[in-house]
């Protein structure tokens, strides 16, 4: 339990060395994100004429899946209240006193419902991740609910409702993908999407977000993931060799520049250049002025939309690389619902898509084979697919 970042982060300054990533893996200053491109937002219906056009939605989902492997959906049918209540029970779980969480903490990978820190493999990793996580299966509900936390009191009620609805949205999206690919409605139902696994990630405020990560660059091993990211930035997507971020709207850009000009003016007028120096020194004095007011470095990442669900296509369909960064002022909690094949499911390309100009690239495998290789390679995107490539 004492290994959990949430147990000790409050008294620690500076960032402990075991959490500092090698220079090439560090996020650096968030303002250095090279691209302000962002993932598409797709309206699944209910909002305006465009939202009801099924063919257009299928086109948008397929396009976003192929181009980004990532998108957000709105008007998906899950109420904003349910999303809020569910995120609240997750945050409340991490805020419980240590004695109320202790029975869930475990380093045994076979324990179905467990609280972990970092990757869950703390003693065998070189650098630790700045995150704790609560993990458990959700589907089939009646089988797994008895394993879930009973505190906070509403945990089981809200997570039960939310995971059922998230699963429905995911299956609808999978149907749109199979429809768009022309491989028949329901191609991904049954064994290919049999399981729902939940990982609630908790990233406490971090003394130096530029040196560490909440989650390193990876693709999810499953079929499709639905992520609730609450209202704090932190998710970044890797596309065409670049980390892509949030597009600041006019008001936000305006605000940043008004503040920058004001500060520079004040600085020159009153202090020569010392105020700037002071602002840059604040983080080292324990008060991160920049992150708190994002006057100098706006926060960047996939924009949290109040009702948005982030959808991410996993390895069994495509690979969409992403990571989670931390920040120094706010704790961030995100909930990833991984829709995954059953362990024994045989994965192979849809035969209708294979032809002379589109040959098969990967051999068929059992999902559990893929998972054990994924875990052995620690999700390293450079090598995970190697054993499954066909020699062409
Ligand atoms: O916290 C996030 O935004 C990302 C979480 C994630 O990528 C994961 O749990 O696999
Ligand atoms: Fe992920």
From TrEMBL:
Keyword flag Nucleotide-binding: no
Cited PROSITE patterns: FE2OG_OXY
Record-annotated Fe2OG dioxygenase domain positions: 193-341
Gene Ontology MF: a single term: metal ion binding
E.C. number(s) listed in UniProt: 1.14.11.9
Keyword set, alphabetical order: Dioxygenase, Iron, Metal-binding, Oxidoreductase, Vitamin C
Coiled-coil regions, chain positions: none
InterPro entries to which the protein is assigned, alphabetical: DIOX_N, IPNS-like_FE2OG_OXY, IPNS-like_sf, Oxoglu/Fe-dep_dioxygenase_dom, Plant_2OG-oxidoreductases
Family recorded in the similarity comment: Belongs to the iron/ascorbate-dependent oxidoreductase family.
Name of the protein this chain belongs to: Putative flavanone 3-dioxygenase
Source organism phylogeny: Eukaryota, Viridiplantae, Streptophyta, Embryophyta, Tracheophyta
